[in-house]
């Protein structure tokens, strides 16, 4: 056991010495990998911040019927009963929102309170919010029902306002797939960079490796410092990538805060949790070590 630990300490020391003896190439390789790794980290931060916003907004298929402001008393309940009786196969739930309730809700919003205070009366109509059952032909069914409900008596307008949320969810799915492809590209960059770094190291120390073999060094002993070199490069690049992403989040948060405030919401980008970041660093280190093993195996056959 002591012999095994001594060999690994020696291999780690050799790898650190090789990094130290070639500072320019080491820093260049670290920056290339770190900048590449920072991109999916920023993308993951964006997805983590956007997911709660999407969850807060209902993406259920809803249609809102706005009644005429001069509709007689009881017209809203009558239309709601007509919908429940005649379209029960398509409707999951129906909710009536009286104009007084809608006005009170808006007054609680400071952005609307001052404007509503100067109005002589209540300009809002009664509304009926209808939640449809989810089906495969939802888009076509929604268009048909919207056209039919516009013709109901005392109905002023019909609005289907969930389309943009469904588009947003689709965009997030697209971004998630794009991040997966970007992660695959990052893995290739890590493999190529570490492979080339170890290749140059192996070719530089060609004679040293040959002498070590002549005196009885095993292949594991020859390869081990290169494996540590690859793993250290990957781990250090992962730490640098986290630092770069953390620095980039400050100006991004300032910009996105101004945009979110204009929509009356708050969004803050932040890095994933510590366990996720630690797993990412370990994963990059393992990937770099595998690339180093592949490279040293191919380039020390002499």
Automatic annotation (TrEMBL):
Segments forming domain FtsX extracellular: 62-158
GO cellular component, one term: plasma membrane
ABC3 transporter permease C-terminal domain ranges (all copies): 181-297
Bilayer topology term: Multi-pass membrane protein
Chief location: membrane
Annotated TM spans: 177-198, 226-249, 275-296
Pfam hit, one: FtsX
Signal sequence range: none
An annotated GO BP: cell division
Subcellular localization(s) per the UniProt record: Cell inner membrane; Cell membrane
Domain of life: Bacteria
Keywords: Cell cycle, Cell division, Cell inner membrane, Cell membrane, Membrane, Transmembrane, Transmembrane helix
Gene3D superfamilies: 3.30.70.3040
PANTHER family attached to this UniProt entry: CELL DIVISION PROTEIN FTSX
Function: Part of the ABC transporter FtsEX involved in cellular division.
Family: Belongs to the ABC-4 integral membrane protein family. FtsX subfamily.
Protein's recorded name: Cell division protein FtsX
């Amino acid at each position: 056991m002591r012999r095994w630990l001594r060999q690994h300490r020696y291999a780690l020391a050799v790898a650190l010495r090789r990094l130290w003896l070639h500072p320019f190439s080491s820093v260049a390789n670290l920056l290339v990998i770190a900048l590449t790794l920072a991109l999916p980290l920023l993308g993951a931060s964006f997805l983590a911040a956007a997911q709660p916003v999407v969850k807060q907004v209902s993406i259920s298929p809803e249609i809102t019927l706005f009644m005429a402001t001069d509709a007689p008393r009881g017209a809203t309940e009558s239309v709601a009963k007509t919908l429940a009786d005649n379209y029960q196969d398509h409707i999951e739930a129906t909710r009536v929102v009286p104009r007084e309730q809608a006005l009170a809700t808006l007054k609680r919003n400071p952005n609307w309170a001052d404007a509503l205070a100067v109005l002589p009366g209540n300009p809002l109509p009664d509304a009926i919010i209808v939640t449809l059952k989810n089906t495969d032909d939802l888009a076509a069914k929604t268009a048909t029902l919207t056209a039919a409900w516009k013709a109901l008596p005392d109905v002023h307008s019909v609005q289907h306002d969930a389309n943009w949320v469904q588009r947003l969810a689709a965009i997030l799915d697209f971004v998630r797939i794009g991040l997966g492809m970007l992660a695959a590209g990052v893995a290739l960059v890590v493999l190529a960079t570490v492979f080339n770094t170890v290749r140059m190291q192996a070719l530089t120390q060609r004679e040293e490796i040959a002498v070590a073999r002549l005196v009885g060094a095993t292949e594991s002993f020859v390869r081990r410092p290169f494996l540590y070199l690859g793993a250290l490069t990957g781990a250090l690049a992962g730490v640098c990538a986290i630092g770069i992403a953390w620095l980039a989040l400050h100006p991004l948060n300032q910009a996105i805060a101004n945009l979110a405030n204009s929509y009356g919401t708050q969004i803050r980008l932040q890095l994933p949790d510590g366990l996720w970041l630690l797993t990412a660093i370990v994963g990059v280190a393992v990937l770099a070590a595998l690339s180093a093993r592949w490279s040293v195996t191919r380039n020390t056959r002499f």
